[in-house]
Design brief:
By secondary structure, the protein is an alpha/beta fold. It is about 45% helix and about 10% strand. Helix 1 crosses helix 2 and helix 11 packs across helix 12.
């Protein structure tokens, strides 16, 4: 199998199975990766995203998750590691960790301090450029929602993509439909070399329609068959097939995201869905995320059953 090198693909933002002592269950994780890359249309793996509990993992754990991923499937798909830090120098260190273990690229998140205080466009530009220059790794920009102070407006994104050659894609998390559609159309015209990736786990079908090149989704790590099916039928202009996948995904989408955006609690429900599919033996999350309620677990179980998807028997 020839390795995919295009960022215009579906990247599952992977969950990480844990042992009872909160260490990484490495064998289950390797089995999980093999299953994901066996699904046609999966061309990359995103480690250390929010679904992968990046903010709860130590530096050593983040590096190890990426190292296992490269070792297991890096010869077949792109491996990209999320990077999150409150300062540039540390972000560079995390990115160099990913480079050391063989990652193809990083997905750089904004410092979370920006969510409260915001930042000047010049500071945002320099943050991404400094990390790119110091590591020379491919980069996906992690765009936060338009209503937050960490949002990067489209004129700044275009400038960054024109002047920072390492940027290969944008994880388009705008979550304001008119702004999202306007910016996607504009960027397709003026920076066509940069791939636009949806991250709308909670509204996946409608988010594809503006013409997304791919996706970075925690949801793609649970129901990859449906997510890739939605993309294929959309690009084939097979409306009947698209609507079939749309209806199939709704029960589990609602059970995990409860008509809201991804969150720590949604990630816990997502991991419970992986247990229901036979991918993980435990839904344990790193603290402080606590186990989901019996009602939530019942909804997740029902949601998986209503998709009609088979048990994958990876344990």
């Amino acid at each position: 199998m020839e390795k995919n090198t295009s960022y215009g693909t579906v990247f599952p933002a992977i969950s990480v199975p844990l042992n009872n002592d909160y260490t990484i269950n490495e064998q289950e994780y390797r089995n999980y990766l093999e299953w994901l890359v066996s699904v046609e249309g999966i061309g990359g793996i995103l480690t250390n995203g929010h679904t992968g509990e990046i903010t709860s993992l130590t530096r050593e754990e983040r590096k190890r998750v990426t190292e296992i991923t490269v070792d297991q499937v890096g010869d077949r798909v792109l491996v990209v590691s999320g990077v999150n830090s409150e300062n540039t120098n540390e972000a560079i260190e995390y990115a160099l960790d990913a480079k050391e273990v063989g990652a193809d690229g990083i997905m750089l998140m904004p410092p979370h301090g920006w969510l409260r205080f915001g930042t000047k466009p010049e500071s945002a530009f320099r943050f991404y450029k400094d990390v790119a220059d110091a590591t020379d790794l491919d980069m996906i920009i992690h765009l936060y929602p338009q209503r937050t102070k960490a949002f990067l407006p489209v004129d700044l994104l275009i400038k960054m993509c024109k002047e920072i050659p390492q940027i290969k894609a944008i994880k388009q998390g705008t979550r304001n439909s008119p702004v999202y559609e306007h910016d996607v159309r504009l960027m397709h015209k003026v920076i066509p070399h940069v791939k636009l990736l949806t991250c709308y786990d909670e509204a996946i079908a409608s988010s594809i329609i503006p013409g997304m090149d791919g996706a970075v989704l925690g949801f793609a790590g649970v129901v990859p068959e449906i997510i890739t099916g939605l993309f294929k039928t959309y690009y084939d202009r097979d409306f009947t097939g698209f609507m079939k996948y749309y209806e199939q995904v709704a029960p589990i989408m609602n059970a995990i995201y409860e008509s809201g955006q991804p969150s720590g609690e949604a990630h816990a429900r997502l991991k419970a869905a992986l247990v229901e599919r036979g991918a993980f033996s435990s839904p344990l999350m790193k603290l402080p995320i606590i186990p989901i309620s019996e009602e939530e677990a019942a909804n997740v179980k029902k949601g998986i059953e209503e998709t009609g998807l088979p048990n994958v028997n990876l344990i």
